[in-house]
Amino acid sequence: MPSELPGVAHVIQQAVAPVFLLTGVGAILAVLTNRLARVVDRFRELDPEERLGGDVHARLRMHERFKEERDLLARRRKWIHRAIVLCTVCALFICLVIAVLFLAAEFGWDPSRTVSLLFVTGIFSLVWGLICFLREIELAMRDVDGR
Q1: Which burial class, exposed, middle or buried, applies to 123 when counting CB atoms under 10 A from its CB (0-12, 13-18, 19+)?
Q2: Cβ-count burial 52-76 (b if 16+ within 10 Å, e if not)
Q3: Domain count, the chain
Q4: Does the reported pTM lie above 0.70?
Q5: SS3 of 31, please?
């Protein structure tokens, strides 16, 4: 048993970088979910049904007035959702990297090809998630700038 300890220690050393990446992705996901919550809250504020009850004429006037903002919020919601999905996929692939490292050490096979494929796929997913996040930020700035 003590002879196996250096092998396990080596696997833990290899898993440290993916664990730090996983922590960073978790922080990004927290930011994204907070932004999504703000968009959803603002969308609900603009819901004429909730604000004006049964007054049809007032609801129609408000609907026309806020239609543009609601459309922008809907587009922002879609981009945030895409970013959340892609960053979550990244986190799942990074978890798989860590699991494969430990399984390979336990069963004595070379995980390099599998780990490389999983890691690169996770990074590509993170990159696309961040691009979606940038797009959502651009849409939010349009709302602020009034474009």
Answers
A1: middle
A2: beeeeeebeebeeebeeeeebbeeb
A3: 1
A4: yes
A5: helix
